[in-house]
């Protein structure tokens, strides 16, 4: 049976890989974007990674341009952004698609395993839909689709997805920290 660890991925510098080398670790997978109101969460994600990496947590960034064109850059531009604007040391992968017919298999697996958010404020969806309508863009997608940039999936050491948080859940949020702590057990 195929697992998250078996899904083919591409690193930000173009190498084919998978998450196999991270088997047995707790994972935090986040779709990221450089021109989003939540982009400042890179700082908190790096802080989480630094705090928990020695205990077995790995944070992964998956750039995606699915939402209002907020990740327009090339992989090279994204890599430069992630090394200068928000210097992160956790792995960043090549740009992919998190929703729709071109959805990357990693997000197909994650959204199937965790179709609902553990935290999704009505205010977030309402605010996003108001913004999207003002831009003449389609409204936010229905679950299980990824709602917006910086959505967070927590995967336990056994490879099972155990929690999902909407974009407005900050990396320092006690609910996310609790899920990470449990995933590390």
TrEMBL record:
It comes from the Bacteria. GO terms for molecular function: peroxidase activity. The active site is at 36. Keywords: Oxidoreductase, Peroxidase. The keyword Oxidoreductase applies. GO terms for biological process: cellular response to oxidative stress. The keyword Oxidoreductase applies. This is Glutathione peroxidase. Belongs to the glutathione peroxidase family. PROSITE patterns: GLUTATHIONE_PEROXID_1, GLUTATHIONE_PEROXID_3.
